[in-house]
Design brief:
With 162 residues, the chain is an alpha+beta fold. It has 5 helices and 7 strands; from the N terminus they run ββββαβαααββα. It has a domain at 2-74: Ribosomal protein S16 (S16 Ribosomal Protein, Chain: A). It has helices at 51-59, 66-74, 98-121, 126-134, 151-161, and strands at residues 2-8, 17-23, 35-41, 46-49, 63-64, 137-140, 145-148. It has a 5-stranded mixed beta sheet with strand order 4-3-2-1-5. A hairpin with an 8-residue loop joins strand 1 (2-8) and strand 2 (17-23). The longest helix has 24 residues, at 98-121. The chain is elongated.
């Protein structure tokens, strides 16, 4: 796909640009182009464009870069609206202070404690209660998991020792 874009040719701290027709896969600074369609010097604000050739290449299917599109509109070679070439601004978000962070962590801890106490006080189902009563288990408070206690082995080991 052909593209009409700007190619920088000026010295360091003295930018000037060529308007070139190039393959879109070529890098901007590669120097590979098919045709020079004009010049643009941003410091002196001089623009020389070959309007008829640019229009003919656009009609043949060449795409125009956003900045070049805006230059063509400002020079009245093309008609339409200018495109926004600046990056989008993100909305300003208030950074949380240390007091805000402390208040949110305290409120989260209170909410989790309330949820735990409600879940412990309400039995989940009758079947789970029956299973819990049938097998002897010990509850480990730090992990909150059920671990079976081997009562038969403890009794048999104690009898052998005496």
């Amino acid at each position: 796909m052909l593209k009409i874009r700007l190619e920088r040719v000026g010295r360091k701290n003295d930018p000037s640009f060529r308007v070139v027709l190039t393959e879109s896969k070529n890098a901007a600074k590669s120097g590979k182009f098919l045709k020079v369609l004009g010049h643009y010097d941003s410091r002196k604000d001089t623009i020389r464009l070959e309007g008829e050739e640019i229009k003919s290449w656009i009609s043949k299917g060449a795409q125009v870069s956003d900045t070049m599109h805006n230059l063509l509109i400002s020079n009245k070679i093309l008609e339409g609206k200018k495109k926004n070439v600046l990056p989008r601004k993100r909305p300003i978000t208030k950074e949380p202070t240390t007091n805000d962070l402390q208040q949110t962590t305290q409120s989260e801890q209170i909410a989790t404690n309330e949820a735990e106490t409600q879940s412990e006080s309400q039995p989940e189902s009758a079947e789970e209660e029956a299973k819990a009563q049938e097998s002897p288990v010990a509850k480990i408070s730090s992990q909150e998991s059920l671990v079976p206690v081997p009562e038969e082995r403890e009794a048999s080991e104690g009898e052998e020792k005496t």
